[in-house]
Write a structure and sequence with these properties.
By secondary structure, the protein is mainly alpha-helical. The chain has one domain. The protein has four helices and two strands, in the order αββααα. A two-stranded antiparallel ribbon has the order 1-2. Helix 2 packs across helix 3. It is elongated. The N and C termini lie far apart (35 Å).
Length: 90
C-alpha cells in the first residue's frame, strides 16, 4: 500500500516547479475556493487543466485496455521510450 501511494504521489511538473500529484488536486480545491470567495488573484485554471488531462488520460487508457487488453500497454511503452531518448533536460 505504501508503494502504491508513493507511485500515485509521483512528482508532476506543471511549468513552474515540480509538485506531488496529490498536492495539485489540493491546490485546485484551495484556489477554487479562494476564487469563489472573492479572491481575484487565485489562479485555479492550470490546476484544473492538469486534473482534466489526468482524468482524460485515465479514461483513454481504460477504453484502450477494454479494446486491446494487455496489448494496450505497448503504445505507452513506445511513447515513453521515444520520449526518454529524445527529450533532453536543460
Amino acid at each position: 500500500m505504501a508503494t502504491a501511494v508513493g507511485v500515485a504521489n509521483r512528482v508532476v511538473d506543471i511549468g513552474h516547479g515540480s509538485i506531488g500529484a496529490h498536492y495539485f488536486l489540493t491546490s485546485l480545491g484551495h484556489r477554487l475556493a479562494a476564487r469563489l470567495s472573492g479572491d481575484a488573484g487565485a489562479n485555479w485554471v492550470p490546476y484544473a487543466l492538469l486534473a482534466a488531462t489526468l482524468g482524460l488520460g485515465a479514461m483513454l487508457g481504460a477504453a484502450t485496455y477494454i479494446q486491446m487488453g494487455a496489448h494496450a500497454l505497448w503504445p505507452a511503452v513506445a511513447i515513453a521510450a521515444i520520449l526518454a531518448f529524445t527529450v533532453q533536460r536543460p
